[in-house]
Design goal:
Elements lengths: L13 E3 L22 H6 L1 H4 L5 H9 L2 E5 L5 H11 L3 E5 L24 H12 L4 E5 L5 H9 L3 E4 L4 H14 L3 E7 L2 E7 L8 H5 L10 H4 L3 H20 L8 E6 L4 E7 L12
Parallel strand pairs: 2-3, 2-5, 3-4, 5-6
Antiparallel strand pairs: 1-9, 6-7, 7-8, 8-9
Helix pairs in contact: 4-5, 4-10, 6-7
Amino acid sequence: MAAGISVLRTGANIFNLPDFHQEPLKPHFFLQPHYKLNDNELLKYSRQIMLPEIDIAGQEKLLSSSALLIGLGGLGSPVAMYLAAAGIGKLTLVDFDSVDLSNLQRQIIHNHVSIGQLKVDSARQTLLQLNKDCTIETVSELLKDDELGELINSHDITIDATDNFATRDLINRQCVKHRKPLVSGAAIRWDGHVTTFSNQDDSPCYHCLYGSDADSEDESCTENGVLAPVVGIIGSIQATETIKQLTGAGTTLEGRLLILDGIEMTFKTLKINKDPECKVCGNL
């Protein structure tokens, strides 16, 4: 399921900001981590622990964290694989689709043996081979609004790797309602974009960016195509944003939209303004 929303939309609530700077956003939901690394984990995650922004404390936070990943297609594949390998404590996978041959060009978590399997089952098998200590849970049915809200509220962060506006809008509404951070990415043809919404204080939400009529401009990879590495790039950035949000490392893309033009291989950053009249987050 490679994300299929247009990278840019006329009238979106954004503007050029080449030198935009933001103070690092720290997670709002962490108590002192209770997880303590054992000797094997110190070795397994040693290259990550060497990073001063992560260190042992950051790795323990990651191992104590839970992430909800919605969509196991082109974007969700690298997100899931990198989060599991990096040591996320619990990863819940949500997707009701099955693997078919046309998925394998870009959905690298699946393989030929997976064809016909539920994507969540195929992904779980791959992830446990990467990291047997990661807790992997799966959801393979369509969820009602309140069911999705309960799932989002029970996890530290949500990653949206879906491919249609209606689903994205619902995910955003539930993340705002429960004030949970959301990492959103999209890719189509040679282009992609990614951002992080903290859904705290005065931060914008997905609805601030696209409003209510983005569904009229919905595009899909089935109709327009997508280059395989493009979803890999965007998905990898989503995984990076998730780790940063969970550990408090560095500066996230909160308030900024990172746009990839793969044909020219350029990145552009735009600022996202909070819409005070937003029907989703305007009252926060």
